[in-house]
């Protein structure tokens, strides 16, 4: 397929949505990491993924610039707000760290789906120069989802152990 105006519009909208999605991810992860005390391995991985996410946003901005477009500040702001509210919602839960793990795993898989779809549109629309950046973002999201999956048992076990010992287990 060639770079048609409809496909280009779909691609640009997808890139803008992905940028806003990554902005939302930051607004979820930053408050989480600031509250973690008893799970240093989770804090370290979230800090690493925050840096990756910032790099992902830069890649998306570069792709948009190549298309003479820019990210949507309105979408960024709206999704950042909803991400902040989602992060705050778990702070009242007695099992905040576990709920955050569930939500983060779900969000990582949402991001994976979004990048797979964007890669398909890039292929259909004839945007081969975007493939490398989108593949890099996809790989980082897949790595994070795998890390959460691989560590859910450890986080849950630590949570239960802390609670059984009468210690603070929230974060």
TrEMBL record:
Residues 43-77 form a coiled coil. It comes from the Bacteria. InterPro entries: DUF892_YciF-like, Ferritin-like, Ferritin-like_SF. Keywords: Coiled coil. This is Protein yciE. It comes from Pseudorhizobium banfieldiae.
């Amino acid at each position: 397929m060639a770079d048609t105006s409809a496909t280009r519009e779909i691609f640009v909208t997808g890139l803008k949505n992905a940028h806003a999605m990554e902005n939302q991810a930051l607004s979820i992860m930053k408050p989480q990491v600031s509250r973690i005390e008893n799970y240093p391995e989770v804090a370290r991985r979230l800090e690493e993924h925050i840096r990756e996410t910032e790099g992902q946003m830069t890649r998306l901005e570069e792709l948009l610039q190549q298309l003479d477009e820019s990210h949507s500040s309105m979408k960024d702001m709206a999704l950042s707000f909803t991400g902040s509210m989602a992060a705050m919602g778990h702070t009242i839960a007695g099992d905040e760290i576990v709920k955050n793990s569930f939500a983060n795993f779900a969000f990582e898989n949402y991001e994976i789906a979004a990048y797979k779809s964007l890669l398909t549109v890039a292929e259909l629309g004839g945007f081969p120069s975007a493939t490398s950046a989108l593949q890099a973002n996809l790989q980082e999201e897949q790595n994070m989802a795998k890390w959460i999956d691989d560590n859910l048992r450890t986080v849950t076990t630590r949570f239960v152990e802390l609670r059984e010992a009468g210690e603070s287990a929230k974060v």
